[in-house]
Structures are given as structure tokens and as C-alpha cells.
Amino acid sequence: MLGTSEDTVGGVTVNNWSVMVNGKEFTRYKSFGFSRDIKNGCGEFSVVTTNTLPKDYPIQLNDKLEILYRNIVVFTGVGDKLKCSGGLDGNTIELSGRDWGICDLLDSSVPDSVKKLKGSVSLRMLAEACIKALGLTFKLIDKSKDKLADKKVKQQQTAESGQKIGDFLAKFAAKNQLYLFASPTGDLLAYKTEESPKRNSTTLVYGYSENSSNNVLSASYEINMTDVFASLKVRGQGAVGYDAKANKAADSVDVNDKAFDFNARPTRYIEIKLSEPTTKDNAKKRAVDEVNVRNARAHKYECEVPFFWDKEKKPYEIGDVFPVDDVMHQCFGDYLLGGFSVGFDIEGGTKALLKFSPPAAYSVVEFDEKSEKQKKGKGKKFVKEQTDSEKTKTKAIK
């Protein structure tokens, strides 16, 4: 038997959600929703009310909105879009937007002052320089165990003209295997999934007949093997034969190694070309990691539940690890929460769509290195050249 979507006190259902607008409580909503994904720096929200003229609507574009559960902030947003619709039976007004401040940072182009930063720089240095240049006030919070946001990396080139800060920072963060996304309170989180994930107290149970522990409304389990290969080779360039006495540069040699996945059909083979120098040991480790990640990403579990809090009444967070016990779809074990979409309706209560994959699916942060270069040819013709043929997953720099 499923539990209720809200708390019940003395037989009366209690709504523990609240909405604040510019620091003041707003009670005139009919419904609201918010969502977040580990691979998307910005989350989204929406608030709906009815039978209100647009000029009387107490939430306007650019207002700061906070959604809370039991006085714990779960989303901090700013209104980007105001939609008014209706007919003879009344009006509906919907305000929607994204994370407060974070959306402005990620949408904006890299400032000239940041492009001038060269040499050894850290993610924190770049992020804080961008935040300061735009006049924003939030912080970068490093959630990684080894404080990788402060690890300096030699930057070969600055941002391109017109490049978005979101793309610029995400690519730099990937060098240290960090995800970047907004916190519930409006700060920018640097997050690494494979380090001591937080185990949630909620076990997701589905499919047991006449079992009071069932707590999932509906679920789906997908296994997609299209990116899984039986034989995977990682190939890169290494350096040997450096003659220090003669001050001669090292010769570039081919370095490669393989790993195997026996879950895939034996006729499937893929080769990954690294864009940075490597060693044979690193190529082997990368190949093993790649096999594990691709196998984990093949498994996706989604479920809808009538709650968004654990046994201690604390809201769920990206990165929480849940035990799954779904006998109907034969899905069992630990799964990491990589995304969610939560909705609350005055009449229907709370429903949350939770999106999971095995923890290993998030252990390698990827970014697209299909950067196109334009070469000036004869006359006024330009030729586009792709540097890589596929997405490259960059492991941490040693």
C-alpha cells in the first residue's frame, strides 16, 4: 500500500510546501514544479495560478522565487517567461524560469578579462573571475573530496570570442572530472560522483503483490546496448627517445591498449582516439574505465513516486544513491539519482519523477570536442575541419 503524498496529522493532510517571492510568502499558486539534471548546469521551475489578470499577478519577470519543503530551500529561481492564457471559464498564468544567477552566468559570453587569464589556472579562478565580471554574488562550492576546483591546470588557449561561459567552464571542469550545476540555494556546485556518494534511506520498491512496502506509482527500466562494445581500444600519442644532452625533442609514437566487455556481442569493436598525450598504463586504465562507464550508462531506471523526501523528511538531492527493489522489471541494486522532475498540485499533491543509472555511469564527465576550425583557403573560400569524430571523455590530469 502506498503512503500519502503529504504528511498527515490527526487525519488531516498537511501541505509542507511553501513558495517565497522576493522574500515574502506567496500562497496564490495552484501548482508548481521544478526539475534538475546532473548534466545540465541550470534547473527549471514553473508556477501556475488561475483567475488572475496579468496586471494583478504578484509574480513578475525577473522576480526571485524560492520553493521550500519544511522550510528547506529546494530551488531558487528567477522568472524568465510569463505566459497568460484562458477562455470563458477563466484565465491561467504561468511564470517559468531557471536557477537564480546561474542562468545568467551560463548564458553569457566569456568576458574579455577572463580571456586574458593564461598559464596555470584553476576552475575556481575562472569561475570566480566570470562571476565578478558579471556583477553576480553567488559562490562556487567545491563538493569534491580532493578540492579539485582549486587544482591548477595549464591552459593552452583562452576562450573563443562569443563562447558561452557555461560551455567554457564545463569543458574546463571535465578535465578534473567535475560536474557543474546549481545548488538548491543558488550557488554553483562543483561535484564529483564517485567519491563517497550519499546513501539515501529510501528503498524504492515496486511490483510486489499485496506488499505494504511498495512505494512506487509507476516505473520503467531500459537497457540500451547501442554504445556498448565487446572490444574497446584507446589510442593516443606518447613520447620516447628524448635526448636531454642533445636537447632534442622526443619522438611521437603511437600508444594504445584494449579492454573487453563480455556483455556485448563479440562482433562489436570501437577505437577511441585521445587528443592529449598518454602512456600505455593510462591508455589501459582509460579503456577499462570506458568499458565500465558504457556498460553502466546502458541501464536507465525511472520511477514516479508520491514524495520527494527521505525517512528523515529531508528532500532528495542529485547524487543520492538509492537501493532499488523492482521485481516487476527485474531491476535491483544501488542506483544514483542523476535527475528529477517534481510537481505539486493543490488538489493532487506531490509527484516526483526520479531518473537513475548505476553510479559508474556518472564516474566519467564528458564534453564534446568536435570543435570546428575554419581555415582560410584560396580566394574567400573557407574549409571546415573537425578535430575529433566523437565525444571525448577526458580523464583527470595526473
Keywords:
Phage tail proteins - 2 layer sandwich fold; 398 residues; mainly beta; 27 strands; Phage tail protein beta-alpha-beta fold; disordered N terminus; 13-stranded mixed sheet; Phage tail proteins - horseshoe like beta roll fold; 3-stranded mixed sheet
Structural commentary:
- Helix 3 packs antiparallel against helix 4.
- The strands form seven sheets. Strands 3, 4, 5, 6, 7, 8, 9, 15, 16, 20, 21, 22 and 23 form a 13-stranded mixed sheet that branches. This protein has a three-stranded mixed sheet with strand order 11-14-13. Strands 18-17-19 form a three-stranded mixed sheet.
- It has 398 residues and is mainly β.
- It is 13% helix and 42% strand.
- Among the domains are: 90 residues, 3-Layer(bab) Sandwich (Phage tail protein beta-alpha-beta fold); 78 residues, Roll (Phage tail proteins - horseshoe like beta roll fold); 104 residues, Phage tail proteins - 2 layer sandwich fold (2-Layer Sandwich).
- It contains five helices and 27 strands.
